[in-house]
Amino acid sequence: MRVYRPESGRLVQREEPVPEPQRGEVLVRVRAVSLNYRDLLILDGDHFAGGAGALVPASDAAGEVVAVGDGVTRFAVGDRVINTFHPDWIAGRMPDTAVGYGNGQDGWLQEFRAVGEHALVALPDSLTFEQGATVPCAAVTAWTSLDRVGPGDVVLTLGTGGVSLFAVQLAKTRGARVVATTSSAAKAAKLARLGADTVIDYVATPEWGKAVLDATGGRGADRIVEVGGPGTFAQSLVAAGTHHAEIAVVGFVGRSGPPIDFMDLFRSGATVRKIWVGSREDTEDLLRWLTVWPVEPVIDSVHSFEDAGEAFRRFAGRENFGKVVITTA
Ligand SMILES: NC(=O)c1ccc[n+]([C@@H]2O[C@H](COP(=O)([O-])OP(=O)(O)OC[C@H]3O[C@@H](n4cnc5c(N)ncnc54)[C@H](OP(=O)(O)O)[C@@H]3O)[C@@H](O)[C@H]2O)c1
Fold first, then answer.
1. How far is the CA of 25 from the centre of ligand 1 (A)?
2. Domain topology for 141-274
């Protein structure tokens, strides 16, 4: 089978034997893989949870079951599946032992992968393999970030990365009003078409936290899907107002910025909740929600397996609006 592994800082395609599923495992023929910010950091050796070494990259895949090991009961040959982001987090609190794909064990940028049956969920017929591959990290993270958001709540999303676009779409299915930020007029127009009610250009308006207050009659956002970290958190605190909003701390794409003023946090009354993607139960809840409130994942481009290098370049260059997907075709 074809597989990609990092070698001296670049991805190299190799031939390796197709794995045999062991007891409790299924063999998945990978059909599509999607890229996430973490995949770039891991390859660059810049991820807080460790670098790639020679591990196969990518945390998110969709495919079909082509063989099952002894004792497998959840899946049969022919089933369409996606993986869960944390293979061993079924429900409840995240276990201390969670091991990531691509930096703790081989990821999914390969034609076949044997994996414990507990680490997969069924892919609904309503989603293609390419769409399914966008779910495990970005969509589930948006879903858990929006936990308990209800009609009339104001949700603030930052930028147009994978998590943020799903957050816009899922927030609308919950009846929320969406205020979104981005860095260009072209992306602002796309966000509006996706359902964002108010879009703020964070480059033209560096004090965008105040713009969120202005857009909400001075009240601010109820839920902030905070993907920018050091580069955005201070403004997010302004956007939170003082009415006990919740800030879902997701990421750090804005790599540096002003220090956070403790008194600003104190005055806001905001609850700060760290997100760790989500469990298998969260993934299943999301997929069930999508059968009632369908959302079409925004896919920027689909690349062939041979073209994986180009897919990584496009994603790293931030040329994309929506997920960058690689198929095994
Ligand atoms: N904690 C978790 O469970 C979890 C799960 C998933 C992801 N993450 C983290 O969340 C972050 C987003 O991941 P992703 O995969 O969605 O990223 P991504 O697709 O690579 O997002 C890239 C986008 O981020 C936006 N951006 C960059 N700097 C920004 C800034 N200063 N303000 C606002 N937006 C900015 C840009 O949007 P515009 O082009 O519109 O400006 C850019 O297109 C990453 O840090 C990732 O590691 C964490």
1. 33
2. Rossmann fold (3.40.50)
Domain residue ranges in the chain: 2-136+277-327, 141-274
Query: Which is nearest to 30 in space by CA: 107, 103, 138, 113?
Result: 113
How many Cβ atoms from other residues are within 10 Å of residue 213's Cβ?
Answer: 19
List, in order, residues 6 or more apart from 223 with CB less than 8 Å away. Answer: 145, 146, 149, 153, 154, 155, 156, 171, 176, 245, 246, 247, 248
Who lines ligand 1 at CB under 6 A?
Answer: 36-38, 137-138, 141, 158-164, 181-183, 187, 202, 227-228, 231-232, 250-254, 275-277, 318
Give the closest residue (by CA) to ligand 1 atom 1: 250
pLDDT confidence band for 98 (50 / 70 / 90): confident
Residue pLDDT, tens place only, 156-215: 999 999 999 999 999 999 999 999 999 999 999 999 999 999 999 999 999 999 999 999
What is the arithmetic mean of pLDDT over 105-124? 98
The neighbour count for residue 280, using CB atoms within 10 Å, is 21
CATH code for the part of the protein at 2-136+277-327: 3.90.180.10
